Amino acid sequence: MLTVSHLRCEYKINPIGLDMKSPRLSWKLQSDRRNCVQSAYQIQLSLTESFELIEWDSGKKNSDQSIHVELDHWLPNARTRYYYRIRAWEVAGDESSWSDTAFFEMGLMGSGNAWKADWIKAPFDGETDVSCPRFHRLFDLHKSVTSAKIYVTALGLYELHLNDRRVGQDYFTPGWTSYGKRLQYQVYDVTDLLQNGENILGAYLGDGWYRGHLGWNKEQKIFGTDSALLLELHIRYTDGSEEHILSNPDWKVATSAIRMSDIYMGETYDARMESNWTNAPTENWSPVDVLDYTKDIIVAQENVPVTQIEHLQPIALLTTPQGDRVLDMGQNMVGWVRFSIQGEAGHTVELRHAEILDHEGNFYIENLRGATQCIRYTLKGGELETYEPHFTFQGFRYVKLIGFPDDVHLNDFTGVVLHSDMERTGNFTCSSPLVNQLHHNILWGQKGNFLDVPTDCPQRDERLGWTGDAQMFVRTASYLMNTAPFFTKWLRDLEADQGEDGGIPFFVPDLRSSTSEGWGNTNHSSAAWGDAAVICPWTIYEMYGDVRLLAEQYDSMKRWVSYIHAQGDNPYLWNTGFHFGDWLGLDSKPDSYIGATDKDYVATAFYAYSVSLTHKAAEVLGHADDAAYYDKLHDNIVAAFQDEFVTPSGKIAVPTQTAHVLALQFDLLDSKARNRTIDQLGKLVADAGNHLTTGFVGTPYLNPVLSDTGHHNLAYTLLFQEDYPSWLYQVTQGATTVWEHWDGIREDGSLWSADMNSFNHYAYGAIGEWLYRYVAGINTDEHQPGFRIVHIEPKPGPGLEWVEANLETMYGPVASSWYRRENNQMDVRVTIPANTTGTILLPGAEVQTVLENGKPLDQVSDIHDVQTQGSDVRIVLGSGSYLFIYKVLEADQEVHAQQVESV
Ligand code: RAM
Q1: What per-residue string of b and e applies to 538-565 under the rule 16 or more CB within 10 Å gives b?
Q2: What distance in Å separates the CA atoms of residue 765 and residue 759, rounded to the nearest whole number?
Q3: Residues 680, 558: one domain?
Q4: Cα–Cα distance between 620 and 101 in angstroms, integer?
Q5: Within a 13 Å sphere around the CA of 391, how many CA atoms are in the beta-carbon half?
Q6: Catalytic: 232?
């Protein structure tokens, strides 16, 4: 039977508030038969859920496309909900019934003049000690309502309430964008929150990223000085009429119980000042001011919202040697603590948040630098009170309790984990508990740092969208979760913040502040950081088949490459300007953050890489002239690179692991130099006692390069090292997220200097890509992106007996597992989603010995092709689940046995 399910519009389930001409639809096919390929589909759109009237019908359309399908010759209307359903036919003749119905709803679909409301602000705004204003508007309803939607945004952050109920599940709205150029609005369906008679609509505003503290220079008000609200409530009545409640001078404003709220600093709340919206004392309310501020930059929500994703209970209440009472959440997490307390009115309690306890077991907050992340709550007294903050988040595992009663219980506290609500897509487990913990830590690095923008860290006074970090981690992140809407939004900000000369800020959104001090004479365009402009859209294209985003970002990609081209005297080398180099590389000079790899080398290598990806993008998008230009440019850069950095006899002149890794990964060498470099890389790793010395730039590619160049077992050796420096070193130290420094906590218990020591920094978590793409072997195909062709090439190695991984792709679930059994037996299980093709590489197999579900390969009809490739077997097959069992070739066995000994 064939079914169509998982309907998505622009990656989202039933999105409300899309502003675009051509929303794309995607679906998944399921079949109980293997080899399922779609031959046709039909999409119907209706204004009603019952499909009485069909608004648009594709008819039976012969096509195998099932993701990112645009609707021909159709344009949506603003503020309209479209229901859609899909059915499909497959090549083998099966026909599905209609899918379940899904919908998408358009937003205001206009620029500034779509908004009739006024920006409103508090007259007292900006005075000290009245940071979070609270706005409200009373209105009466006397007719029956069909639907009611709120369109809303803010300068700052907002939280809406309608009739004493919080509107929506989203936090940190309207999200963080390049506020001067782009500001998102959200849409909420509030039909069920309205009531007959009097209604009260209210909103709190917080400073957020817009005008709270941001950056390490203790600056505030970076994007603007006034916080303000812009809101429209559109009510449709059953009689066909409409009424709009707009933010305007009819609104009233007062101070609120949220006395202070700041992303870095935390929140101060005085519950004595609390009152619900319906019986708030009216004398405190004053008229609002109207703010003259543009509406032309307002765009619909692009990313998925930040929500409360999960809740953790503390695992212990400790008393430290210094006598502090400290909760241990058991996990370095990002969000906040919700707590319940009973006590006297006016009593204040405090929660402090820290990532680690120091060597002595004391509460350690020096690495937070200027971010106090302190929650202060003053009780109203009487009943049990429950509180959680509004416009701030903390990065922490430990919570110091100040002023709490002696008899607090663990279950008075809940850790609320917040991040962008991305669909979880990847899972990886294997026979090594330490590697499983590493995978867990990588995942939690993403949870903690994908809170609306990809940040370097979530705890100290930084939490910025560092471009380099994002570029390093984007593919790992896209294995773990569906990051397409997340990066769509961020890349638009990147483009918005791109300089006229094509330069890319160090972080996006750019703060455009004086943060250049200490970073040299420029705060933009470091090699390997600015390249996020190219690497991120390309990766999203590969992982999700998103050609539209690639097309949208193409100009930005080109401009970045042109920027590099214009630097210095030689257009084919990049040997000028400020660069972070191989940031935090272990081969740096004492007290330096910058690894030993020559910065010009890193810069030129990334220049070549970005040009090669821009060339590929030009080909995908059909820009033939550009493609030819970038191809030639790439050749010239490679020639200049070789001339400058490779000796005539083929030796790389920069003797670091990172230099060797980059040359191999970016394919910058001729075959003689390549072979030498491969040997030399092995030696460099051996010289370091089979340890890495790489920093941010080299580490993500280290294991992939080793696996690709015949050093695969060495990659496993590095993975399994438990002493410093290694991925598992921090795991053995009890890490629950990935550290910024290989030696954040040293073997003697001392700490890396407090000025830059995050314990939740995803950059080194980029090893996750190698786990999925090499160890489990799940890979996409750049010519058939989005896993239209699924490559599964498991790479077993010494130290692992089995691996199980899966990935929810746009087409459906991909799975890859391998198990080493007794007597040289290998089992490989794979799942290939409907409407895709799989190519499976069985390592160390001989065709004659392979059985699929007990049958020799030539008797399995769903297998399209079988080839022997060296000591492996490659199989091309259609969708379905397969179990291959075979005897691993003797030669492979011996190698394995030796390696196991050496591990
Ligand atoms: C630090 C952070 C960030 C890195 C920059 C260069 O502030 O560690 O991750 O990208 O430096």
Answers
A1: bbbbbbbbbebbbbebbebbbbbbebbb
A2: 12
A3: yes
A4: 33
A5: 32
A6: no
Q: Which ligand 1 atom minimizes the distance to the CA of 469?
A: 10
Task: State how far the alpha carbon of 371 is from the alpha carbons of 34, 263, 452, in Å.
Answer: 55, 9, 19
Mutational pocket test of ligand 1: of 460, 461, 462, the residue with most ligand atoms within 8 Å of the beta carbon? 462
In a domain, 270, yes or no: no
Say yes or no: 448 and 402 in one domain. no
Would you say how long the chain is, in residues? 903
Q: Tell me if 458 CB under 6 Å of ligand 1.
A: no
Annotation marks residue 462 as catalytic:
yes
Alpha helices in 200-346 (DSSP H): 208-211
Do residues 821 and 854 both lie within one domain?
A: yes
Mutation test residue for ligand 1: of 583, 599, 758, the one with most atoms within 8 Å of CB: 583
Identify which of 506, 524, 593, 696 to mutate to test ligand 1's pocket (most ligand atoms within 8 A of the CB).
696
When divided into structural domains, the chain yields a total of 5
Tell me if 583 CB under 6 Å of ligand 1: yes
DSSP code for 346: T
Q: Which helix (H) or strand (E) holds 876?
A: strand 872-877
Q: Round to whole Å and give the CA distance between 769 and 733.
A: 23
- Supply angle C-alpha 609, 706, 443, rounded to 5: 80
| Percentage of the residues of the chain whose pLDDT score is greater than 90 | 92
**In this structure, what CATH number is given to the domain that contains residue 526?**
1.50.10.10
Q: Are residues 397 and 480 in the same domain?
A: no
Q: Which of 232, 462, 793, 852 is catalytic?
A: 462
Q: Does residue 466 belong to any structural domain of this protein?
A: yes
* Residue 499: HSE in the Cβ half-sphere, 13 Å Cα cutoff: 18
- Residue 12 sits in a domain whose CATH number is 2.60.40.10
Please tell me whether residues 608 and 750 are part of one structural domain: yes
**At which of 775, 800, 818 does a domain end?**
775
Residue 284 pLDDT: 77
Please give the helix or strand (H or E) that residue 316 lies within, else none. Answer: strand 316-319
Domain encompassing residue 544:
426-775
Domain end marker among 48, 78, 106: 106
* CATH number of the domain to which 132 belongs: 2.60.120.260
How crowded is the C-beta side of 63, counted as CA atoms within 13 Å?
A: 14
Point out the residues of the chain with pLDDT beneath 50. 513-519, 900-903
- For 298-338, write each residue's pLDDT tens digit: 999 999 999 999 999 999 999 999 999 999 999 999 999 99
Ligand 1: atom nearest CA of 756 is 8
CATH code at position 820: 2.60.420.10
Same domain assignment for residues 294 and 320: no
Amino acid at 301: Q
Q: Whose CA is nearest to atom 6 of ligand 1?
A: 580
In a domain, 383, yes or no: yes
The total of other beta-carbon atoms located within 10 Å of residue 566's CB is 11
Residues 407 and 297 placed together within one structural domain of the fold: no
Which of 696, 698, 697 minimizes the C-alpha distance to 684? 698
Q: Which long-range contacts (CB under 8 A, 24 or more apart) does 68-72 make?
A: 68/24, 68/25, 68/26, 68/545, 68/546, 68/547, 68/548, 69/24, 69/25, 69/26, 69/41, 69/43, 70/22, 70/24, 71/22, 71/23, 71/25, 71/43, 71/45
Q: Is residue 268 part of a domain?
A: no
**866 has which bridge partners?**
875
Strands 197-206 and 228-237: unpaired
- Whether residue 712 sits in one domain with residue 592: yes
Contact 557, 581 (CB under 8 A): no
The pLDDT tens digits for 78-130 are 999 999 999 999 999 999 999 999 999 999 998 778 999 999 999 987 666 56
- Closest C-alpha among 509, 483, 506, 485 to residue 496: 509
Ligand 1 binding pocket includes 456 (Cβ within 6 Å): yes
For 859, which DSSP code? G
pLDDT at residue number 373: 98
| CA distance linking residue 816 with residue 812, whole number of Å | 13
